[in-house]
């Protein structure tokens, strides 16, 4: 994700102006003139994903598997990086409002599925653990 966000930040969606027609300067982002808020959202989300990916790399380099807090921070950074990538993709790839709404709703549906699946796994793993503990205590007596 570090390399993807770096390259995306260096070559913004839509490209750059290469001439001075219509009062543009060479090197200015095309998206800046046509959709200034989209460029701002793209750069903000892309930068967030980039920094979060760097933090993930640093957390993986630090070998502290004994601390549970590191894994929680690592998962939080992964979620932030993924959300940043999704936000950058939605802001940079779609120029029409309808298409952006479709992309955001699709992302929302995928996130809802992931949360539902995670809750389902957590709930049934805890209930299986309790059932296993009840069986073990019943066998002793």
Fold and architecture overview:
The protein has about 140 residues and is an all-alpha fold. It contains five helices and no strands. The chain has helices at about 1-10, 30-35, 35-60, 70-95, 95-140. The radius of gyration is 22 Å and the shape is elongated. The model has no long low-confidence stretch (mean pLDDT about 75).
Rg is 22 Å
- What level of helicity do the residues show? over 70%
Mean pLDDT: 76
- Coarse structural class: mainly alpha
Query: Biggest β-sheet: count, sense, barrel?
Result: none
Question: What is the rounded distance between the termini?
Answer: 55 Å
Overall form: elongated
Q: Per DSSP, what share of the residues sits in E-state strands of 2 or more residues?
A: under 5%
Poorly predicted regions:
none
Strands, count: 0
Number of helices: 5
Query: H/E element string?
Result: HHHHH
Quick take:
This protein has five helices and no strands. It has 141 residues and is mainly α.
């Amino acid at each position: 994700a570090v390399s993807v966000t770096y390259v995306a930040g260096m070559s913004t969606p839509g490209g750059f102006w290469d001439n001075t027609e219509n009062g543009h300067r060479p090197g200015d982002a095309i998206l800046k003139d046509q959709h200034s808020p989209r460029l701002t959202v793209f750069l903000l989300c892309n930068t967030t994903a980039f920094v979060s990916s760097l933090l993930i790399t640093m957390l993986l380099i630090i070998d502290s598997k004994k601390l549970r807090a590191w894994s929680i921070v690592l998962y939080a950074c992964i979620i932030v990086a993924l959300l940043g990538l999704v936000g950058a993709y939605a802001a940079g790839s779609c120029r029409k409002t309808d298409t952006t709404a479709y992309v955001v709703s699709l992302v929302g549906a995928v996130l809802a599925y992931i949360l539902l699946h995670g809750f389902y796994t957590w709930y049934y793993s805890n209930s299986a653990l309790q059932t296993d503990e009840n069986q073990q205590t019943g066998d002793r007596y």
